[in-house]
Amino acid sequence: MAPIERPSRFTAAEDAAAQGRLKRVLALEEAAGAERDKLLAAAYRAAIEHGQTRVAGEIMLLLAERGAASFKQLYNCMRVLLESDLRAPARKLVDAHRLQGDEAAVLRAMLDLHSGRFEEAAGLAAGVAPGSPVRAHAAALLREMHFLAGDPAASVEAGLEELALAPRLRVALAVLRTADTHGLRDPAIRALQVASATAETIAASAAGSAADLEDLVHLALATFDFPGARMRLEQARREGLSEDVLRKLASSIANMESDVAGFEPDLAECHAHLMRQLASPADALASQRAAGDFAVLVPTSFFAVERDASVAAFKRWQRRFLFTAMDELRVHGVKLDVRPHFGRGRRLEWNEGSRCLSYHTYGQAPGCFHFKEAELPHLFYLDRGGYSGWSELAGTRFDFSESRVAAEDALAFVRGERERLHAGNDSKYGQAAFDPALQLPADYVLVAMQTVNDSVQEHAWIRTLEMAEMVVRRFAGTGTAVVVKRHPLCRDPRVSRRLKAWEREPGVVVSDASIHQLIPGARAVFTVNSGVGLEALLYEKPVYVSGRSDYSQVCHVFTTAQELRLKTRTIEAAVSSADLARFLHFYLRTYLVDARSAESVRSAVRQRLLAGATPLVNKAQVEPKSPA
After folding, report:
1. How far apart are CA 214 and CA 207, in angstroms?
2. Considering only Cβ atoms within 10 Å of each terminal Cβ, which end of the chain, N or C, has fewer?
3. What is the pLDDT of residues 477-513, one digit of tens each?
4. Sequential DSSP letters for 9-42
5. Domain locations in the chain?
């Protein structure tokens, strides 16, 4: 048995004692019947508590083989195993248990879902009878599967069914976030209603779990209720929520309060607006005509406590950018109408008689600007069309002859930016630490994958999995290896399955190394329209893209396997190094807004929001267009 990996909260002596108990129980032959089952159950709990997932699976297998494991125990154990990508032990549990009917179907569907067999999982989960005691578990699987498959409406529908059968605040918050982000206003309100009702039940009960107490804080933040979040945090502290969780929540709330200082009344009004929607959705919608010169739509997601440190970091940049922009508008006497960006979705429809500033949206609404973090977290779009392939820049051709920047100055800027990023191992998402022992092929190209349901893949002629497969096939047997880098936030089991298959192929390397270790030695970089493409351009590498973006005009674009083969007969940059440097200088210094400098944000507000224009070089259209 592998030694227990000791979390910091346990002493070495406690770990040794727990390890000894596990060994004794697993070797126990003299105990029989219920006594042995009780000892095994205790050992299982100890293994889970100490993070020994594989050992926990072995113990649960013994219980399953004896018919002593309940559906709830098996379900929870399989979820832990599958979240740790331990499919083999999970498969043994599915084969060994003695459950029948719907319970067996749910466990099999779990395994199929996490093995990337979505159709099989959907069939099993959908076949669970509506009145079955495990129908809520089936709905939970359907919610997860549809989300991974890029069908938010179906995911939310399954989530609402799950909540109707088994209301849980954490599930309600997840459904609320999905519905809100994708413009599903009525389902978002229903999820918020369930969340609020469940929160009231938890608050009125003395039996709330630690997870419930934590979720009460998350709900308060998601509804712009900072005083409520502080109150819930103190309640959680009194009830014994772990110090690690308390510390993270307190730090996140303090950062949020610092970032929005001076705008507390506006956020209180956002909270009141959401509460009015809960009380009377139709009246709240009818009263949404602009009450100021400039409507600012504040996303609830800006106040989510993120687990991933890199995501948490650019949440701070998001808040700093927005509230600095709002302050500059007020300096110029603009009357702001601050309200929640709730249930509006990505495509902004705006006909409310005022100008508007909206996050992570697109669309040519008169008087409206869209903002979003760009390829590096401190850089932002502030554009009338949107971001990435929706931006105005994506619809124009950069005229290098009009650039007033000397080639040598532009090149010096690009190389300085590259050196800065490389030295700090900086990227939009957290990267692995540099590995001095990393070995890469002598001759390789790099494939940078994206999340399967990334919104910008709407601009893909060839989506990320198919693009990667196409590149692997293109270089098979050529002597040039293909290094594949998965997106750091990707958890899609279909991607996991494909990566395992590629790892078995000669000439293919799957790596989670830092992008700043993978790009420098690559002959070329292939992606759909990922931010890694922009980073590769900073390294002056040839970049091949299968989707439209704001930087694709200085890349090779391919829309078919034949076009990929033709354009890679000779691997070379799409434009000269001088022209590339001029484009990157314009893109990073003029077009994007640097949130590290408050004056940069304020200047952009004056030149764009108040003047009504995005800085572009000319209006020549770029072809080919994105897919319909």
Report:
1. 14
2. C
3. 999 999 999 999 888 888 988 999 999 999 999 999 9
4. TS-HHHHHHHHHHHHHHHT--S--HHHHHHHHHH
5. 1-99, 425-591
Choose between 491 and 461: higher pLDDT: 461
Helices (H) and strands (E) in the chain, counts: 25, 12
Please report how many Cα atoms fall inside a 13 Å half-sphere around the Cα of residue 628, on the Cβ side. 0
Beta bridge partners of 447: 484, 526
Tokens representing residue 34 in the block: 């219920």
Cβ neighbours of residue 287 under 8 Å, at least 6 residues apart?
276
Task: State whether the Cα torsion 545-582-516-371 is positive or negative.
Answer: negative
User: Tokens 């990157």 — which residue?
Assistant: 584
Closest CA to 224 of 263, 190, 198: 263
Residue 164 CA to its chain's centroid (Å): 26
Q: How far is the CA of 530 from the CAs of 106, 120, 376, 429, 562, in angstroms?
A: 36, 31, 11, 12, 22
Q: What is the residue whose two structure tokens read 């578990």?
A: 137
CA distance 301 to 429: 17
Buried b (16+ CB within 10 A) or exposed e, 206-237: eebeeebbbbbbbbbbbbbbbebbeebbeebe
Which residues, other chains included, contact 32 with Cβ-Cβ below 8 Å and sequence gap of 6+? none
Q: In whole angstroms, give the CA distance from residue 148 to residue 122.
A: 12
**Residue 377, token pair as written in the block:** 């977290």
585 and 414 Cβ atoms separated by less than 8 Å: yes
Strand partners, 556: 544
- Residue 427's SS3 state is coil
CA–CA distances in Å: residue 47 to residues 31, 39, 85, 95, 569:
20, 12, 17, 22, 55
Distances from the Cα of 149 to the Cα of 145, 158, 188, 450, angstroms: 6, 13, 20, 14
Q: What is the CATH number of domain 425-591?
A: 3.40.50.2000
pLDDT over 70 (residue 180): yes
